[in-house]
């Protein structure tokens, strides 16, 4: 069992209950996902806002900047071929089978002894070792309680094999579990437990069996018990919850419990009342933040002065789905995955909006001038849909789906060179779902959550709500999984007055509290609304956890969990109590405990950073020169002006909390200043800037047309500044020069680089120094280009910008710094994107053959990458490719995405990828090296695509080309270089998919 807990849950296989059952749909489902399982809560025709108030209808998901999913195009023949294979296969799929029952045909049952809810007719079976298909067939052939075929074996390299087996008619789940657990070769068997979303939905007590209230215990009065409060809770000062008249869901229905004037451990000044939302509303332009009062209550107004997540960390939301094109979610959405289909999440998969609402709490786009804000200030978002409607007409999920969803994050599907979690830096999982049961019940779930924790991911879970479907022996508090697992951070819901909501679960295994009443967030119809429940409290904590991981990426999940607990605001007794855990989450206190603020100077610019050198927003700080320490000045942006040689001490103080400060000693020199001025489309000459400030525009799609540099130099260092622009339709213009004797008292203005009045854009720049200036200073510069954004810093004559891609420059930053000052980010990407097709010489040669429409086979021999494979400018589709390496030990494997077929099987070493004689276009390729060659070499490749042109360079298995657009691939370039060699050129936008 110890091996099991650490095992990775593998592929999931479905078995047939009866030969007459309907097949399980592979790619699209008509079954709704959504709220709490009550049929009235799933009405897809519910009233929407008035037409003039509702945003434009969302029909299609937005085009996400994500790596490809496992979705397969074509007729499904490839899937059938995969089903026939045996042995390990990387990735994680839910496959369809003939005569396999859909989950919608199965009911939810409750074990009368344990109260545990499970799916009828199926059991989960884990096997020992690494058995093959026939071994499992043989092992189950003598079983009386389950079918042993048809079988589909999918397993992982660690040897874990996991199937869903159908219980034969006449037997029961409990009988099947008992029989299989006694068989040799079976690691363990368990029911496929049911889980539900934990939104606080209304409960019709009269229509259901009312849950009996236990007899008064430990001195509680009958009246107290009838109100849902235990004697122990009343003894600790907890107000009695509302009377059990059905769970309220709106402000009008909830009787608020008075909040104490001050909480333990808080001063009266700390608790001074302010209008909810006021403080955070001053920090961002999201219009509805004014009604997100819970953000102020968890200290976000101060926390944002210390840090923003800014998409550095991604939260995976495992829920009912998402509306991916929602205008307040799309910008932060890194990817989606539908566990049931193995493809992406579509816009119609979340009709009741639970997953979309939770996703908005986690990662609504902050600072975009619309809707709401997220506590973490723009964590990335990855959504996994794993709910379905069962035969009881309830929206549920199960052990298999949830385990599969977690383990998908830890897998490497087609197109990924590392796991999904590492690719998107997923450090937090939010699960606003749960079920009644003890932590020992669901071993499949235990293994998956432990896998996530071991991979550095914190799992945040809703603690659970009062629910009429609980077994009659259960009432608040009750054991709830997965929230009660030791590796999970379990979240209790608070009312608007920061006391536990009467319907919120609690207990000794619950950890932290967060606002969960009337939380305003995104909805599936593209709008916004209120929801309540521990489902809403959990994503508040998950968003804050992402913020903490962004400040300290090296932190472990248990460290972040401990940090959140230890910095929480006590609501009842000091420390832990059963009713609110460690108290209310305090984002500011957690960040403040995590911080290690440092002040340094780069060039003559102050840099505020944490212990991980993350640059902080200087606008949140006051800078000053410590009196008597030297002769200099410092402005509000942290720029130091030397007035004489010497040493000066600069101090930075946080505006919102003067107790947070840092200082640094700086050696001043005789001043050398560089000033520069941009001419932008429709704007004209803009004001001069200096010292790394932006010249030009960003986000307005205006071309940078001209640039003029000026130099003030009284340092005594003579020399020149030489600069040159590459202009669209002109090319490199020729060098412009500023000469300085080192004794100039005023700015020397150089000639203009670029053009104006001709509608030509500057695409690239080169700037260098000569003489004493070059010996004592470095010059750094970087450009912001359309379709690329900010490039990394180039220096001392290197080109910055793009060439041959048709991208216009929009802005530039220039810094003149003392020799040896490092400005360039070693992990910041390329300084220059060269899209010209002049060939990039590699280190390994190859022979290639392409089959092209109307031309047949075209051969290229002994190419090191200089040659274009296929055609360009002739509008002819490439139909097939073969590659053979020359003079090296190793292999090259390549895989084609073909019209009407999707991704075909990989081939290698001169085999043909694609088709001939079928008039089918190749649309995309993936390539990898093998046979040991991959240890020392990287393979880069890019494609020329209809309506796109040359894409960026892909590398080592990432796709290039397009899918879903019906664009033909016309040409390909392949370069094989030694490890750690720079990419041949621009590496973004290598694959276009929808």
Mean pLDDT: 78
> Count of helices?
17
Strand content: 25-35%
Contiguous low-pLDDT stretches (5 residues minimum) are 1-100, 151-159, 201-278
What's the oligomerization state? single chain
Instruction: Please describe the biggest sheet, giving its number of strands, its sense, and whether it closes into a barrel.
Output: 8 strands, antiparallel
Distance between the termini: 43 Å
Number of strands: 55
Radius of gyration: 31 Å
- Judging from the principal axes of the Cα atoms, what is the shape? globular
Class from secondary-structure proportions: alpha+beta
Fraction of helical residues: 10-25%
Give structural notes:
The chain contains 17 helices and 55 strands. It is an alpha+beta fold and 994 residues long. Strands 1, 2, 3, 4, 8, 9, 11 and 13 form an 8-stranded antiparallel β-sheet that branches. A 7-stranded parallel β-sheet has the order 6-7-5-10-12-14-15, with helices on both faces. The radius of gyration is 31 Å and the shape is globular.
Task: Please supply descriptive tags for the structure shown above.
994 residues, alpha+beta, 7-stranded parallel β-sheet, globular
